[in-house]
Automatic annotation (TrEMBL):
Protein name: IclR family transcriptional regulator
PANTHER family cross-referenced by the UniProt entry: HELIX-TURN-HELIX TRANSCRIPTIONAL REGULATOR, ICLR FAMILY, HTH-TYPE TRANSCRIPTIONAL REPRESSOR ALLR
Keyword DNA-binding: yes
Residue span, IclR-ED domain: 67-247
Gene3D superfamilies for this protein: 3.30.450.40, Winged helix-like DNA-binding domain superfamily/Winged helix DNA-binding domain (1.10.10.10)
Lyase in keyword set: no
InterPro entries: GAF-like_dom_sf, HTH_MetabolicPath_Reg, Tscrpt_reg_IclR_C, Tscrpt_reg_IclR_N, WH-like_DNA-bd_sf, WH_DNA-bd_sf
Signal sequence interval, chain numbering: none
UniProt keyword list: DNA-binding, Transcription, Transcription regulation
């Protein structure tokens, strides 16, 4: 039996990712594995519903529509965790004026649930709803350190080099994850973007009788140096507050 209309529509939407935010009809069809006439018909229906939009009036490029964003905000990870964490994230921002992240693990990637943009001029590649590699971000390292063993094995088997400073040696990365579990925080130095350093701590919640790491809170700054203890302390207070509220 051939692909259903639903599966073809989902394939069309899945053609977008963090590296392909704007696509022409031909590119959409190619990435979705669909004939151009089929992609054209489905794109028209999704455009009318609001799942797709034009990059600008009259543009040949499609972008993800606002309707999907509105639906995404209804997901439990968004409504529950973001709502609980919001005041604590604002506390961290007020204390540091740095970019603040709230993230969860989504498979073998880190999903950014919330972000407050800092006042410092630091290259930040994350956006709310974006996914990045676990091994090269502060929040990602926290989540990877506490992920199931099969997830760690997959990530450590083929970590991608993003900058010259990204740690990709499996043994060195595994040792770093051990330190994250021991010390209670993770840090990166220009592993995701040049000129950006990060530090992050875990958020814990009791799930089915056991305490698990369900999220991570992090900061992106130009450098850590002498500020690291202060930043870790601010994040730890916030993470503990979020954890208490999740109970």
């Amino acid at each position: 039996m051939g692909a259903t209309v639903t599966s073809r529509a989902l394939a069309l939407l899945s053609a977008f990712d963090e590296h392909h935010r704007q696509l022409t009809l031909t590119e959409l069809a190619h990435r979705a594995g669909l004939p151009v006439p089929t992609a054209h018909r489905l794109a028209g229906e999704l455009l009318a519903w609001g799942a797709l939009d034009r990059a600008s009036p009259g543009s040949a490029h499609y972008v993800v529509g606002r309707r999907l964003w509105d639906l995404g905000l209804l997901a439990p990870v968004q409504t529950g965790l973001r709502h609980v964490a919001s005041p604590f994230l604002h506390d961290v921002y007020a204390a540091t004026l740095a970019t603040v992240h709230l993230a969860v693990r989504d498979g073998d990637e880190v999903l950014y649930v919330d972000r407050l943009s800092g006042r410092q001029s630091v290259p930040v590649v994350s956006e709310i709803g974006s996914r990045l590699p676990l091994h090269s971000t502060g929040v990602g390292k926290v989540l990877l350190a506490h992920a199931p063993a099969d997830v760690r094995r997959r990530v450590l088997a083929a970590p991608r080099r993003i900058t010259p400073y990204t740690i990709t040696q499996p043994g060195r990365l595994a040792a770093q994850l051990d330190r994250v579990r021991r010390d209670g925080y993770a840090q990166t130095v220009e592993e995701m973007s040049l000129g950006g350093c990060s530090v992050a701590v875990p958020v814990r919640q009791r799930v089915r009788g056991t305490v698990q790491v369900v999220a991570a809170v992090g900061l992106v700054v130009p450098h850590l140096r002498r500020d690291k203890p202060r930043l870790v302390a601010a994040l730890t207070v916030a993470a503990e507050g979020i954890s208490r509220s999740l109970r």
